[in-house]
Write a structure and sequence with these properties.
By secondary structure, the chain is of the alpha/beta class. The chain contains 17 helices and 13 strands. Strand 3, helix 3 and strand 4 form a beta-alpha-beta unit.
Length: 465
């Protein structure tokens, strides 16, 4: 049995900035290497991926394609077309977030013979007809481009940091109306196993930082503190120069209390990415966020005492959301930046109505017509403006918020640009003046000059090429 596992391009693949390990195919590979010959192909870092795919297809039984809801679908379809043309006998299997949400539609597309729903490790092995097996280490040696392609600060840490990402748990107990994470089963690795994995990565690849990509890393206070203590004991934590990053909620941070936050600080916690989402109390209740604006402001002030670097996410474009409510979100973002000099804004993203969520049903009720074809979902990303209520001034405001969010903190974009190609023109000092202009417009609700910001954005992105 020979299996090819392919990770398609995502549409935003910048070396050193947005290209992390293709964990989805690595995890599937870890579950089947004992029963199959496995070939991994990562379109993002292998310029000759097409030649490699055509060569391997000659005797491959299965081509597995992983995809999220984004332009990654388009690039996955490209690979599927090659397989259909070059090796009709090879079965095509799709997995990942999007096929889990839309199994029937993916099958109807003609680009898939099977769909893996849920956790790929278990389902893929089961599909091959084998009983469950103990979890194995990820087969990093199968990455054809080599591990160095994925090691780096990636905008989470300083440019000289050698970091990698791992996932130690899946699913989320919260059921925010816009998020599909709660649709996936909850699993978590033991504290001992997590610490052992991190230590092996340090020994194998000389890394000095780790990014935990669990949906909500700090949800279990006892577990997260035990992991932090283990990092300090085994790797020295902050005192030895080790750093780590995670995704979490603001209330999870508050539950840890001053003593818990001190433990995280000593272990080397550098930054984390909470979803704030909205500055409107009505919207926060509508999306069942279970947090308040007052909490966000209070906890942000607490975090400033420890010199953590929170990276805040926001969402606009909810059905029924007004311009005034979106202004509240932008005002909250500026308040958080003012109150915490180390705070940054990851972005102001635009709602995508994911199937299976409450917001999907609300969106359909508000006039959203879901795409009928797999390929049409590729147009939906966190910057889309395709939902029917985004019209007129509302659409203009959403576009303004999304594009200017890249400049508003004056820090994150500068850090990422320096990772790719250091230049004196777009360093933190140069972008500070632009950030101050954006913050002033956010506070005033002034959405003028959006064309100018789009031009600046295009000019800066040219530096990535």
């Amino acid at each position: 049995m020979k299996v090819i596992l392919l990770y398609p391009k995502t549409g935003f693949d910048i070396p050193g900035v947005s290209i992390d390990l293709p964990l989805s195919i690595l995890h599937v590979a870890s579950a089947i290497t004992d029963v199959s010959e496995v070939v991994l192909i990562d379109q993002r870092v292998e310029p000759d991926w097409e030649d490699k795919l055509m060569c391997e297809l000659s005797n491959a039984n299965i081509l597995g394609i992983s995809s999220m809801t984004c332009p990654q679908i388009t690039h996955g379809i490209e690979a599927a077309k090659i397989a259909r043309r070059m090796s009709p006998r090879t079965k095509i299997v799709w997995g990942g977030a999007h096929p889990t949400l839309f199994p029937d539609q993916v099958l109807d597309s003609g680009y898939a013979d099977h769909v893996v729903v849920g956790r790929g490790e278990e389902r893929f092995r089961e599909m091959l007809g084998y009983p469950p097996a103990p979890t194995k280490e990820l087969p990093y040696h199968l990455l054809r481009a080599g591990m160095e392609k994925y090691i780096g600060g990636q905008g989470r840490f300083d440019k000289d940091t050698r970091a990698l990402i791992i996932v130690t748990a899946s699913g989320c107990p919260y059921k925010c109306a816009y998020c599909a994470s709660s649709l996936f089963p909850r699993t978590s690795e033991s504290v001992t196993h997590v610490i052992d994995r991190v230590c092996r990565l340090v020994d194998q690849f000389g890394i000095n930082a780790i990014a935990f990509h669990d949906e909500e890393f700090l949800i279990n206070t006892n577990r997260s503190l035990a992991i932090a203590k283990g990092i300090t004991e085994r790797l020295g934590g902050r005192s030895s120069g080790f750093r780590w990053w995670c995704q979490t909620r603001m209330d999870s941070l508050e539950r840890l209390g001053p003593q818990g936050l001190e433990i995280l600080w000593e272990s080397g916690l550098e930054a984390f990415q909470p979803g704030i989402e909205s500055g409107s109390e009505r919207i926060l209740k509508m999306i069942d966020k279970r947090e308040t604006v007052e909490q966000f402001i209070r906890i942000n002030l607490l975090l400033a005492q420890y010199e953590f670097s929170p990276l805040y996410n926001f969402i606009v474009g909810f059905p029924t959301e007004t311009i005034d409510e979106m202004k509240e979100t932008l005002n909250l973002a500026v308040t958080l930046l003012d109150n915490n000099p180390r705070a940054q804004v990851a972005g102001v993203y635009i709602l995508v109505p994911y199937p299976g969520t409450e917001m999907f049903d609300a969106s359909v009720a508000a006039g959203f017509i879901p795409p009928k074809k797999l390929e049409d979902w590729a147009n939906f990303s966190r910057q889309h403006t395709l939902t029917p209520w985004l019209v007129g001034d509302v659409k203009k405001f959403v576009e303004f918020a999304s594009i200017t969010s890249r400049f508003v903190d004056g820090k994150r974009l500068a850090k990422r640009l320096q990772l790719v190609r250091p230049t004196p023109y777009w360093n933190e000092d140069a972008l500070l003046g632009l950030a101050q202009c954006v913050q002033k417009q956010w506070v005033q609700g002034d959405i003028s000059n959006v064309a100018l910001y789009k031009s600046v954005n295009s000019l800066i992105l040219g530096n990535y090429q």
